[in-house]
Amino acid sequence: MSLASMAERLTRRTWTDEIVDAYVGPFVSAHLAHAVAASVREDAASGGAVTAILVALLDADRVDGALVCVSAIEDGRVRARYRIATTRNELLAARGSTYVLGAFVAEALPLIEAFEGRLAVVGLPCELTALARHTGLAEKVAVRIALFCGHATTSELVDHTTARLTQRANGAKLTSFRFRIGHWRGMTRAGFDDGTVIEQPFSAYGLYQNLYYFAAKKCMFCGDHFGYDSDLSAGDIWSAKYKSDPIKHTALIVKTQAGADAIALAEQRGECEVVRVDIGEVLDGQRRIAPFHYNVSARAQAGVGLGLKIPDRVGAHVRWHERAAARIALQDFLATQSPEGAAAVLRTDRRVLKLKLLLLKGLESLS
Length: 367
Ligand SMILES: Cc1cc2nc3c(=O)[nH]c(=O)nc-3n(C[C@H](O)[C@H](O)[C@H](O)COP(=O)(O)OP(=O)(O)OC[C@H]3O[C@@H](n4cnc5c(N)ncnc54)[C@H](O)[C@@H]3O)c2cc1C
What we know:
By secondary structure, the protein is an alpha/beta fold. Helices cover 42% and strands 20% of the residues. The strands form two sheets. An eight-stranded mixed sheet has the order 3-2-4-5-9-10-1-11. It is globular, with a radius of gyration of 20 Å.
């Protein structure tokens, strides 16, 4: 048995109906899925199931377009930009996760409003809540797909990452960027105008992200990991037993009939392979992050001593290790709020940060 499997066994959690209801909300079923075509899976964030479902919806004329988000390059910088994809190629171009926060309300909602036709919308949980609050768009939106979301980061972290990659490419101009592709935690890939392609482990970015450095402020206040306001939600499955599986999967949670119809269609059309699993299997794959994310109460309590006022709308029971983990996350978030603080964090020996991450993961794992 691997060390990771042993650690999982020791920190096993019980997912009671009450916990599932709190974290996920009402749901119909849970699944593991992947795009049937390897060409769709490559460059996808997980198993490419989200893209495969969008392709099926578009090809079957269930929707006229899909609101997606791309990692756009603007003046050598990576920014989250929204597009309405109306062709298979545009959907493929939008594969992958864009971890830098976009301006969904200011940029995506007007696109949805202006579009004539029916849409599928992919968004982060908070973005789908913003969509739900925006009256008058419900009729236009046939299906809402939420991405499981730990949190998003600010542009400073990706600017730091691309500046270093540009240096390694001897100053060539950045032309393409994928935050995370490939198996398990994956690789970051940057392309340059002289043909140079640089890949580095996603952990170069993920180490800071997982420690909540450069976290977007609103994420500190949010407890919605799985997308309460979605028809279908999609994420990774981080259980050790899937590490050696040659095909990476997307975990799916069906919330409504529209969500169930969307995956049934993708299956019928041969775009997606879907296997039903117990919801506990999906939650096992999020065993640390989902409880941490949901527990806004822990951050509200830890925030008091740090001068951060976080409203507690959850009223969850907070144990010492949850408060300690929340304190680390908030301290790290605060540390990167000023340019001087951010520079100091980026100068810190990565071995020290890795030890800190181990501590945070340890605290998150206690149940
Ligand atoms: C900020 C962020 C945080 C995440 N946190 C977690 C987490 O903690 N745990 C977890 O299991 N999974 C998380 N995910 C989801 C995960 O990275 C994958 O997106 C998900 O597993 C779907 O994979 P896929 O291969 O099926 O999707 P793909 O087939 O690659 O399609 C992804 C779709 O999502 C759209 N998209 C990408 N980024 C954004 C964005 N920022 N806003 C709106 N739409 C977007 C793309 O345009 C594309 O249509 C996160 C994603 C993001 C963007």
